[in-house]
Write a structure and sequence with these properties.
Layout lengths: L11 E3 L9 E4 L3 E8 L4 E8 L6 H19 L9 E7 L3 E7 L3 E3 H8 L5 H19 L15 E4 L4 E3 L6 H4 L5 H8 L17 H17 L12 H7 L11 H10 L10 H6 L5
Antiparallel strand pairs: 1-3, 2-3, 3-4, 4-6, 5-6, 7-8, 8-9
Helix pairs in contact: 3-6, 6-8
This protein binds adenosine-5'-diphosphate and magnesium ion.
Keywords: ATP-binding, Kinase, Nucleotide-binding, Transferase
InterPro entries: Kinase-like_dom_sf, MAP_kinase_kinase_kinase, Prot_kinase_dom, Protein_kinase_ATP_BS
Organism: Macrostomum lignano
């Protein structure tokens, strides 16, 4: 039988390093991720989301409630290319712990930094196949499940070469009001044009995941997201009025076509994940 993780733990503690500090797995815009050990004798990852600057307690409650509703959906998802959610727990005021499977490996953005170079086409093909398989699985579920925050720092590669999507954009709409603008700029580069509408309400769709995936393909080949040279506040107008930047010189025609289908401005003309899986680049 496949070893399984038990989400029914009741107590846990942080694992510490030689200096007695919590073992840090990574830092993102949302919070810090540490190693934790449960009373089911399993080692897991725990993300501590701080809701600082949340002036209104009601807003925090609302965010956490929404987050919890989503986590119960995510808990039911079992896929080899998607991190397994275990549970979430609220500690103290305005702090949320999200427990997931512990992944041994690095995010694609860390890997590029560590090897000091982008990925070659063979790697992009391998990763893209696995990412599209995971997204297609999510998008085919009922109700449709979206990732909402696809980018290289949210895509991990295990030491064995298995892709794992992490960091679902849970209740991002609610959290967005509390997050620092610094983190908001980070994700701006991956947002589809249709997400900037007049009333400011963000409605994600499977096609906005595909757009972000296309931007991640660019990032795998350039080590920077599309339009990285522009200030973040210039991005919305840029992508609503211009085509997306080309992939670097030397990229094959097949990969250019694949990327082009992901970043079509008009969502209806943009490829769905099922179509991407059939694309010649992935064969
Ligand atoms: N389950 C995990 N196992 C191992 N490392 C992880 C795990 N989850 C996150 N990390 C590391 O922590 C970093 C930040 O985590 P992430 O969930 O993306 O947080 P944020 O919402 O703050 O961006 C990731 O880029 C990755 O390096
Ligand atoms: Mg992240």
């Amino acid at each position: 039988a496949r070893p399984s993780l038990d989400p029914a733990f009741s107590s846990w503690h942080f694992l510490l390093d030689g200096d007695g500090n919590k073992q840090l797995l990574g830092v993102g815009g949302f919070g810090k991720v540490y190693k934790a050990f449960t009373d089911k004798r399993q080692t897991v990852a725990v993300k501590i989301v701080r809701l600082e600057g949340a002036s209104s307690a009601r807003l925090v409650d609302e965010a956490i409630e929404k987050e919890n509703a989503e986590i119960s959906v995510l808990k039911a998802i079992r896929h080899p290319n998607i991190v397994q959610f275990l549970k979430s727990e609220r500690i103290k005021k305005g702090k949320l712990c999200i427990f997931t499977e512990l992944i041994s490996g690095h995010s694609l953005s860390e890997l590029m930094q560590l090897q000091r170079r982008p990925f070659d086409e063979a790697a992009v093909r391998d990763f893209s196949k696995q990412i599209c398989t995971a997204l297609n699985f999510l998008h085919s579920r009922s109700p449709v499940t979206l990732h909402r925050d696809i980018k290289c720092s949210n895509i991990m590669l295990t030491n064995e070469g298995l892709i794992k999507l992490i960091d679902f954009g849970l209740a991002k709409e609610v959290f967005a009001t509390m997050r620092s603008t610094k983190t908001e700029c980070g994700t701006t580069y991956f947002k589809a044009p249709e997400l900037y509408n007049e009333d400011g309400r963000i409605v994600y769709s499977p096609k906005s995941d595909v757009w972000a995936f296309g931007c991640s393909v660019f990032e795998m080949l350039e080590m920077q997201p599309p339009n990285w040279q522009l200030e973040w506040y210039r991005i919305p107008l840029r992508i609503q009025r211009h085509d997306m930047p080309q992939l670097p010189a030397g990229t094959s025609a097949l990969l250019r076509d694949f990327y082009g289908r992901c970043v079509k401005r008009e969502p209806r003309r943009r490829a769905a994940t099922a179509e991407l899986l059939e694309h010649e680049f992935l064969q």
